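Folding Problem: From Residues to Backbone Shape
Fields: amino acid sequence; protein C-alpha cells
RECORD BEGINS BELOW THIS LINE
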Amino acid sequence: MVDVFDEVEEELRKERYMQMLRSWGPWVLGAAVAVIAGVAGYQGWRAWQDNESAQASTRFAEARTLHEAGQTEEAISAYALLASEGPRGYATLALLHQAALASEAGNNEEAARLYDEAVQRSPVALVRDLARYQSAVAGFDTLSSDDLALRLDPLVSGGSGFALLSRELIGAAALRDQRWAEARRHYEFVQLSIDASEAMRTRARDALAVIAREAPEEVPAEESADEQVDAAGAAATPDTAEAATEEEDTVE
C-alpha cells in the first residue's frame, strides 16, 4: 500500500515539474541563449579590440621609425592617419607626437591646435593635463596673460601635477606683459612651494629679481593722495593769480 502512495506522489511530482517546464522553459532557455550570446559577443569584442590595438601599435612604431630616420613628412602623415583612425589611446599619442613635430618646425599655431585636440581625445587625465599645458606653451607668444591664465586655470585650481609649472608659465606671461604684481604673486607662490624643484625655485628667484629691478616703485596711498592735492593746487594757482590781476584792473 505504501508503494502505491509513493508511486502516486512520484507521478504528481513529475507532472508538476513538467508543468513548470512548460511554463518557464522558454524563458529559461531564452535567458541561457542571451547569456551565451553576451559572453560570445564580449569575447568577440575583446578579440577585435586586441587586434585593433596590435595594429595601432605596429603603425605607431612605424611612424616613430620614420621620424627617427629623418623622414618627417612621412612620419607626420602616418601620425595623422593613426590619429584619425586609431583607438583613443594610440590616437592621442599620435596627436602628441604630431604636435611636437609641428612645434619643432616652428608652427606653434598648428602645435597648439593638435595639443588641444589631444586634450579632447585622451582617456587619461594625466595625458590631458600634459596636452593642455603643452598647448599653452605653444601659444605663449600669441596669448595674453589673461588668456593664458584662463587656459591653465583647470590645472592650477584642479590640483594637477602640472599646477606649479602652469603657475610659472602664467607668471612668465604676466612678467612679459609688465603686470608686475601678478607676476610677483605667482613667482612667490612657486618659490615658497614645498613641491617645487630646486630648478623651479631658482627660476622663480631670478624672475623676482627682475621684477624688483624693473618694476616701478610702489607709492604709498597717503603720499599719492597728498601729491594729487598738491598737483591740483599747483594747477589752480595760475588761474587764481590771473583772476586776482583782473580784479585789480577792474578796481583801478
About this structure: The two ends are 157 Å apart (CA to CA). The longest helix spans residues 2-68. The CA atoms of residues 150 and 170 lie 9 Å apart.
